[in-house]
Each structure stands twice: as structure tokens, then as C-alpha cells.
Amino acid sequence: MASSITLSAGVRQNLLSLQSTASLMGLTQNRLATGKKVNSALDNPTNFFTSQSLGNRASDLNSLLDSIGQAQKNLEAADKGLTWSSPPSRSPSRRARLPSRPPRALRPSR
Fold it and tell me: Ramachandran region of residue 100, left (φ > 0), alpha (ψ -120 to 50) or beta?
């Protein structure tokens, strides 16, 4: 059973206007939810790929920064281990020293 509804020109224009408003509201809600003005290459290809490239670069730099922080902590721990001071009851001038020559077992034979 097919039925058709006829709309006057004014009602049809109002319906199209409401559909357009609903579409724009959906787009705005998506932008608010994601925090991005351009969410896909369909919105604006140039800005989308630029944004994606900059996001990847920022991720790489954050990874490098984490690695640098870890290396710094390792160096601080190694330095602390090599230059530990003796307990306060002993002379403060006593510090761990590396041997000037390797033990006999590690010396090259002649």
C-alpha cells in the first residue's frame, strides 16, 4: 500500500532547514566529543594529514623525552653508586675508588 504525502512549499523548506540544522548539530557534537575540528580526510584533507603528521611527531618526541629521562636516572644511579660516601662516623674523605690496574686474572699475558 503506497501512500504519498504532499507538502506545501513552506513546509518543505522548513523540513529541509530542520534537516540541515540537525546535520550541523551532529557535526558540532562530534567536534566537541573528539576535541578536533577536522576528524577525517573528508572534512579537510590538507589539515587532516597535517594534523596526523604533527600528532605522530609529538608522540615520537614524547617517547624520546621518556627515554632521555630514563637514561638520566640511570646515570644518576651509576654516579651515586661509584661515588658513595662512607657512613658518617668515618672520615668523609674515604670514597670508593676504581682499581688503577685490573686484577692479575684479567691482565693480558705477555
Answer: alpha
DSSP assignment letter at 106:
G
d(CA 103, CA 26): 76
Give per-residue pLDDT as tens, 16-56: 999 999 999 998 898 888 888 888 888 889 999 999 999 99
Domain boundaries, the chain: 45-80
This prediction has a pTM of 0.47
Which residue, among 77, 87, 84, has the nearest Cα to 98 in the 3D structure? 84
Distance CA 39, CA 24 (A): 14
Q: For residue 45, what is the DSSP state?
A: H
DSSP three-state, residue 105: helix
